[in-house]
Every structure is written in C-alpha cells, then in structure tokens.
Amino acid sequence: MGKPDDAGRLTGDPITVRCRFFATFAELLGREGFDLVLPGTATVGDAVQALRQALPHGERLPREPMTAVNREHARPGHPLADGDELALLPPLAGG
Amino acid sequence: MSQHVTREPIDVGRLVAGVADPARGAAVVFLGTVRRSEADGPVISIEYSAYEEMLAEEFARIVGEVAVRWPGVACAAQHRLGDVPTGEPSIGIAVAGPHRAEAFDACRYVIEEAKRRLPVWKRERFDDGSTRWREE
User: Fold this and answer.
1) Which residues of chain B have pLDDT under 50?
2) Measured between CB atoms, which of B54, B114, B134 is closest to A68?
3) Which of A39, B15, B20, B24 is most buried as measured by Cβ atoms within 10 A of its Cβ?
4) pLDDT of residue B36
5) What pLDDT is stored for residue A3 in this prediction?
6) What is each CA distance from A89 to B50, B54, B93, B136, in whole angstroms?
C-alpha cells in the first residue's frame, strides 16, 4: 500500500489506464486500444512516453500528441488515476 | 446518439426550428459543406470519423458556453459522421438571439471552437477510389 501524496493519491499502487487511438494513430499502430499499467503518480505525458516505448510502431507516435482523459482535453501534466480513459488524438479536422 | 451527432443528412430546417422564438429576432445559420475544387482535387466524398463519446460531450460543452456568454441566445448544432458526399453539410449550426450582433458572434464562436476542439477526423475519397487523411 502506498503513501498519500500532496493531492491525497496513493503513490505506490500501479494504475491501469485504458488507452484509445483514432484515425491516423490507429492506422500507424495497427490497433485502436491498449490497456497500460503505470505507476500511481503517472501523468498523461508519462503514459504517452510509455506507449511510444511499449507498442510495436509506437515510435511513430508524436512525442506530444493532443490527448483527452475521460473525454476531456488534457495536457501532458494531467495526473492519471486507475480506470481513466486516455485518448490520443491526431490533429483535429472537424467542422 | 446525442442531439449533436448524426449519421443522416443534416436537417437545417429542424436546427433553425430548434432555436426559433418570437423573442429572438435574429437567426444565423452556418453550414460547413464538403468541398470539391481545383485545389482539393476530384473529391467525391469525405468520410468523417470521431471519438464519438467525447464528440457528444465536447459539442454539448461548446453549446453550453454560448448560453453563458450570450444570455438569451439559443444554439442548435450537429456534426455528421460517416460518408458525406461533396456539397452536403458535415456541420450545421443554427443560432438565434434578440439581435444580429450576438447571433453572428455566437455562431462564429461555435464553428471556431468546433474546429479547435471536436475530436473528428476526415478522410477524403477521390473518384479513382483512392483516399487521403486530411489534417484540417
């Protein structure tokens, strides 16, 4: 069991984050999803770095793609929690 | 499916009816349509795909922001997904307010925020059967 950090999160327990990929990212990775296990203090940036290293063709992902956590835009410093859904978003082309 | 997402042709009349009110004397409509021009090449359609759960939530957030920034202004908006033929709208925004200044401003706000924030992607389909992802 970990100790709480300043934000009250347990810092020792790993977390599982459900990652989702779309459009050109899904194409270049050859997949639309991946469950990533991370340290409890991981941020969006940490997750992206882990994905780039862990996934086949992961190095094709940009170092700082646009991202969303639980369906809201989120920056690299955004802290992650167990069960979060992290989406990597290629450049948007809506409208 | 949310009120902000459709796989059918956008019903512009229905969007306008959704914001019409005797107190709102100005109505503005924006339609973004699939373009085919010299510069674009022989596009026959664009396939729109999205992070659908987030699309619905983010579009609802944008429309909600209109109500806060322009009290008295109503907005109805939809993004179409799937294959959209050339010339047909992929996005429809109807805004109505008491006066034209806020109606135009709010409509502009919605399309600019939609382009900046909605998790939607497009793949052009050409008349020779080839496709190309388009990044804007």
Assistant:
1) none
2) B54
3) B15
4) 85
5) 57
6) 10, 11, 24, 13
Nearest to A93 among B58, B111, B120 (CB): B120
3-state secondary structure chain A: CCCECCCCCECCCCEEEEEEECHHHHHHHCCCEEEEEECCCCEHHHHHHHHHHHCCCHHHCCCCCEEEECCEEECCCCECCCCCEEEEECCCCCC
CA-wise closest residue to B18 among B73, B91, B84, B79: B73
For chain A, the residues whose C-beta falls within 8 A of a C-beta of chain B are: 20, 22-24, 68, 71-73, 87, 89-95
Tokens of A67: 């991202």
Q: Look up the ipTM and state it.
A: 0.91
The predicted-structure confidence for A6-18, as pLDDT tens digits, reads as follows 655 556 799 999 9
Which chain A residue's Cα is nearest to B51?
Answer: A22
Residues B39-68: pLDDT tens digits? 888 999 999 999 999 999 999 999 999 999
Cβ–Cβ gap A72/B32 under 8 Å: no
- Given pLDDT bands bounded at 50, 70 and 90, which one contains residue A58? very high
pTM over 0.90: yes
CB A73, CB B119: distance < 8 Å: no
